[in-house]
Design brief:
Distance between the termini: 78 Å
Radius of gyration: 37 Å
Structural class: mainly alpha
Number of helices: 5
Helix content: 55-70%
Shape: elongated
Order of helices and strands: HHEEHHH
Strand content: under 5%
Strand order of the largest sheet: 1-2
Length: 145
């Protein structure tokens, strides 16, 4: 005897009606109700072929909402998150690049544009330190092991 177990236990859904979960069944019935409602509402204004396409297009969003999951969210959770992020709490994201290379080379670049000779600060500091340093003449005894 063999029992099938899902690899991810959290993804388990119980089949209630016709192999569908309760959520899928409710949205499928809702989609059927919308299609029937559109048929009787629009039958006097349109022909059969146009009316059938309108019923399909009107019912498909409700049918999809029962089956679609995106990033672990159901369709209505995703729609609510999208409405919140786009309309209720929108944030203006401003891109301001930081070019570290340009900032480091800015003095050199400006001096080059003005036609001045470029002098690196580090070399200046090293030469100034070398002039001020006094050599130490202390001899420490060395031991050999």
């Amino acid at each position: 005897m063999e029992v099938k177990v899902n690899k991810e236990i959290r993804n388990y859904t119980e089949s209630m009606f016709f192999g569908l979960s309760m959520r899928q069944f409710i949205f499928s019935v809702l989609a059927g109700g919308v299609a029937v409602g559109l048929y009787f509402l629009l039958r006097p204004q349109f022909g059969t072929e146009t009316l059938s396409w309108m019923c399909i297009l009107g019912a498909s969003p409700f049918a999809m909402m029962g089956f679609i999951k995106y990033n672990g969210m159901t369709a209505e959770q995703f729609v609510w998150a999208w409405i919140k992020s786009e309309f209720l709490m929108p944030k203006k994201i401003l891109f301001s690049p930081d070019n570290l290379y340009y900032e480091a080379m800015k003095p050199t670049h400006e001096a080059h544009e003005k036609g001045l000779p470029t002098v690196q600060k580090k070399q200046k500091q090293k030469t100034a330190k070398a002039k001020t340093k006094k050599p130490k003449h202390s001899k420490k005894p060395t031991t050999l092991l």
